[in-house]
């Protein structure tokens, strides 16, 4: 794999509810600088839990790291507060597009860039409108009036407002029509081409693998397979196992 290691998850174990629910066991995963890495697996495999652990949001969901470590840009961030991870360049766009429905598109974006200086925020907003022209056209509209696909774009745009080096995307295609999904994946590629590494959670193998460089498959709390996305795509057995699960 090309590029230096940006994120390295090593033998990570996570549990919920005081240890009674084990969600991840000995999970290892790396994202190299410049890569799009797909994280695949059926419902409940532990994908969201891994994103929470990487972004520092585990505690607010009642989860705890039981073992292992997370390194980012050469530093151990396993126990770092989430604001520090954001400041270091890790942004997350959550499943379910939790946007502020009553706020305008522009104000939703501004809210995403709250930690950064005003001038920088304005510049990044223009870049995002360049990437998602429909958001630019509807910038004064209440976000609740956007279509599902546009709301998803806004959720991704909001995560980009932090100027991330690593973008974590939790099922950006969830519940969207195939044409919109294709558009969103194209935007993920464009974001990546602008220098941002991406960890993309997907249930749908055929959505994620074509845009990914490398992929991991989580199966009941553990990494069951990993390899270059092209190799996983060529593996008939894997395709049969996971194509039907979307
Ligand atoms: P999905 O696609 O449904 O989000 P997933 O692969 O992301 O699935 P997780 O949401 O990470 O899987 O869930 C992994 C396991 O942890 C599941 O058994 C789930 O029930 C459990 N779990 C997730 N969140 C919590 C929580 N806040 N409290 C207790 N258990 C949880």
From TrEMBL:
InterPro entries: AAA+_ATPase, ABC_transporter-like_ATP-bd, ABC_transporter-like_CS, BCAA_Transport_ATP-bd_LivF, P-loop_NTPase. Residues 9-245 form the ABC transporter domain. One of its GO terms (molecular function) is ATP binding. SMART domains: AAA. The keyword Heme does not apply. CDD domains: ABC_TM1139_LivF_branched (cd03224). Keywords: Amino-acid transport, ATP-binding, Nucleotide-binding, Transport. Belongs to the ABC transporter superfamily. This is ABC transporter ATP-binding protein. It comes from Arthrobacter ginkgonis.
């Amino acid at each position: 794999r090309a590029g230096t290691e940006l994120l390295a998850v090593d033998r990570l174990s996570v549990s919920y509810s005081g240890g009674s629910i084990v969600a991840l066991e000995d999970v290892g995963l790396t994202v190299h600088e410049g890569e799009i890495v797909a994280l695949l697996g059926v419902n409940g495999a532990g994908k969201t839990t891994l994103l929470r652990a990487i972004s520092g949001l585990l505690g607010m969901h009642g989860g705890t790291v039981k073992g292992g470590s997370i390194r980012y840009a050469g530093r151990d961030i396993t126990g770092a507060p989430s604001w520090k991870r954001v400041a270091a360049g890790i942004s997350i766009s959550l499943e379910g597009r939790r946007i502020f429905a009553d706020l305008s598109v522009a104000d939703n974006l501004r809210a995403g860039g709250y930690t950064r200086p005003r001038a920088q925020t304005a510049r990044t907003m223009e870049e995002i409108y360049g990437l998602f022209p429909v958001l630019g056209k509807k910038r004064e509209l209440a976000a609740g009036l956007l279509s599902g696909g546009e709301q998803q774009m806004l959720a991704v745009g909001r995560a980009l407002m932090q100027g991330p080096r690593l973008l974590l995307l939790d099922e950006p295609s969830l519940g969207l029509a195939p044409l919109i999904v294709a558009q969103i994946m194209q935007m993920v590629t464009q974001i990546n081409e602008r220098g941002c590494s991406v960890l993309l959670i997907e249930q749908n193998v055929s959505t994620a693998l074509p845009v990914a460089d490398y992929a991991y498959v989580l199966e009941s709390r553990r990494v069951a397979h990993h390899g270059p996305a092209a190799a996983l795509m060529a593996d008939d057995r894997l395709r049969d196992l996971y194509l039907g699960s979307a």
